[in-house]
Protein 1
Amino acid sequence: MAAQPRARNAFTSALSGPELTHVWSHLTAFDLRFDDCLHRVGNPIEHVIFPHSGLVALTISSREGTGAAVILVGPDGIIGGLEAAASACATCDARVHIPGEASRMSAAAFRYLLDQNPSIRRLAARFDTAMMAQAQQTALCNAAHPVEARICRWLLEVQDRSGSSKVPLTQSMLAQMLGVRRTTVTLIAGRLEAAGVLDGRRGYVQIVSREELERHSCECYDQVRSYTVGLFAPSRSESMAAIQAVKPSPRLRS
Amino acid sequence: MPVYKFELRDGTTGIRDDLGVSLPDREHALAYARVVGRELMRGHEQQTRCWHLNVYDEAWEKIFDIPFAGLDPTLDPLKPELRARVIEFCERVRTLRETIASAKITMRESQALVARSRGRPYLATYRGERTIRAL
């Protein structure tokens, strides 16, 4: 039997009884090291990854070498589940931005579990839906929202996953995630610093006021969070209520 | 390769990129600054139209001054003379905002200096900056 995971991921936390035992029996713990590329676009998916801590960014690159992150995954999600279920190649690169711990399962074992167990299959579909919601909102965000609001949104997303107001990302990494120049991030960070929102330090960003950060962010953060909360709510009625509680905002914050 | 530095003039006291970027020559520095300007503007052109991005060499000698109104794609349909007037108006707005920002700093400094001279507590820093500036 494989080593037991050292901490729990949202996927495994949502399971209990025999389902959890089945999943655990296929998991192997490993470390997420900074800048490791877990999946490369176009390559077959060998493992489905369940992060317990840290942060992985799923990024799309252009031929010119520029790119942007479309989905962030921490202990709240799984990586490669959708492609593994479809026996498909990776649709984007999965790169570790914040080191941590994770477990992995072979794509074949993941497919076997999905085939054998309807409740695991439904749970995997929910995680895929949550990732799709994040990707769709990111598409809108990249097209419509100012870079300042986008930076604030990503910082909120990262803080939610890392659980700390000290975000261990450099301005270069943030620029890479947003698909903009490093200078753009530096200048916006200076504005946010002057507004008392954050404190830029060498090697990390210190969030001074989460409330202010939310105020400066676009509505995308709330949209995704509310949808995801609704998605994982215990019943359909609660799920719909949570989704409907969020009214799309027509404003674009500057 | 030479290092070029940048400063955003957004109607406050200005925000600098001290680290700078290594680029082959001034032409590349200008092209890079234009891209940064467009990235900063995108999605809220109206609110950022009065901003400028200055380009400096390593010794902080100014090389280029890029008004965002000149980069603003939403002004493209305007006739050149009308666009020139918009750029001129934006410049005046920015100068006014910078004057107001500077006056606020001076006011805070004056209040702090008076309080200090009377042996009273005073605001030592405001958002990470010393209230009483060094001479």
Protein 2
Amino acid sequence: MNLLLVGVNHQSAPVEVREQLAIPEQSLGNAVRLLVSEPGVSEGMIVSTCNRVEVLAETAGDVDLCGFLGRLHGRDLTRLRQHLYERRERDALRHVFRVTSSLDSLVVGEPQIFGQVKHAYHVARDAGAVRTTLEAVMSRAFAVAKKVRTETNIGRSASSISHAAVDLALQIFGSLHGKCVLLLGAGKMGQLAARCLIEQGAGPLLIANRTFDRAQAVAATYNAEPLSLAEIPARGHRADIIISSTGSSEYLLYRSQVAEFLARRRQRPILLLDIAVPRDIDPQVQTIENAFLYNIDDLQAVVDASMADRQREAMRAEAMIETEVESFLQRLGTLDVIPTLRAIQKRADQLRTEELARVRSRLGPLTPEQERAVDAMTRSLMQKWLHRPLVELKQIANEATGFAAMDLIHRLFGITDSAVGTDDEDEK
Amino acid sequence: MYSLFWARIALTLYLAGLVSSCVLLVLARPAAAPTGLVERLFRSTRIFLVVGFLFHLVSLVEAGMAAHTFPVTQYSEATSMLAFVIAGFFLLVYRLYSPRALSIVIFPLIFLLMLVSIYGRLGMSHVAQTQGPALLRNHWIYLHVILVFLGYAALFVAFAAEVFYLVGERELKGRRPRPSVLRLLPPLETLDRLSYRSLLAGFPLLTAGLLIGGYWATTLWGAAGLRDPKILIGLLTWALYLILLFSRWSAGWRGRRAAYVTILCFCVAVVGWMSNSFSGVHQFWKP
């Protein structure tokens, strides 16, 4: 294994740089084909999303992947070099695992990156750029990501106010299907939260605004029902979730009104999200049973708590990845050494049988017992002589310098790469 | 002649469920509980319940065959039967709603009942274990007991759901819900619905059970038979049950208020269950 990774992400480079390096979806396949046609690159794949552009390659010798990116975009990248990071071997492997597990994401634990990496992998595989090493690396990376997702809570908790709103609604209502959402005021934050709820199955959506025209305009984009503020007392009881984000300096909803809503809806709970400053909903509403009022600070606290949760989970995930990197490298090492072990043993046995055949004619007739003794003696001599090198060989494979040592061993025992290869094919 | 072998195996499995529930509770406190482990624990509590339930069934069949009667005539047998009915009812609820957090409260109860049951039978001779009075060998009483027990079980599930409801409501009302607590709790509306439906299912069963018992008692002892503490407490439970269902249905009671009344109703039922010692008509057969 000789992994090399070069790329930029949201931490290393601003969007102006990332957009210059981004590779459009339709030309990704071609880019990967160009990558593997580079001298020294045997396998490769490219991940390009809005937050990162990364080139991963299995290489032999020195390869300039930065230069490759430059040639790909037909421009000189010397100015951008400071933004590019380069990872090799263990570091590259760890980076791939972290990216796939969403630990390197802008919002740690967000689920999209897994699909994006998987897509990049499929494109590269279809282009014939993924073979043994990258296949092993990527299939392990996907397995690690799944493990991280199921064994930690990294992707579970709210990362934004809108997400927190959805989480709270789910915790109260269980399912959002058929839950009526009332949006007071057509502010941006309110719309965002409403959209998140709708995406989770909530609906119908009612939109009320001080100016009815604006309510109508916004309602049209969401296929929602516009209301005037004057209609709220009469129709507000329909709403299971009320999101308020108006610029009003007075309360729009008072305790008595909400109590009345609850009475009219037979005490089915109401979630009230007041994201306006100054507040739109009388804080006294909180004292009513079955009314759950959250203002902007409360929602931020929910987000903070869950981000802290995420952070803790991320630390656990990092530890998991560290172990995975370690075990992957070890396994890879031991796997790589097996064909070599076999080739050495095969070569030695070949020599033994040849020598035995040569000497046999000079020995004259032997009893079956003597025959067996000679055979056993030569075999045991061979095994004893090979024992220590083979043990050491296994050991070396686990060490970081294993790849270089392996070359030397091949030369010492006169094993050609083809000998290792044919042995491999025999196995299959 | 029968041993308590199967009952003991069931008890051990319920204990295992109890232990893994406790581990779940302790783990859920810090947010750092590994999700994979929590999942595995929830799965294992369920397996313990199912397997324990099956062994429990075997032990009841064995007891019934040894006594040539339905095994509810002695206190310890009835306790075992109650634990069995509650476990069975809960398994049904589990299939329908999968309120896995509720298994945390189910295990202490069935374990305790089972323990009491086995402990009560430990000192008995085989003769005592296998004979019962003719008075209690009556199909009506078996039906009465099973129906009332199902009513109890439904009440218990509603009680458990309401306890969780109160915890969840407090957490959400406090406006600083802890992610680790919320992860364990089912949504409020789910709990409320579970409690309501469980009561709805349990009420007709309890009613039928009481009617059968009442009819049977009056034929035996006349109207005087009804002036028994246990019967009166049973009627009180039934009345609370009725009020609860009626106010939920007509006045839309739900949430905290419904939770308190459900818990009260359950407590009265517990008193009713324990009132055999000062009840004339509900005396268990004591060998």
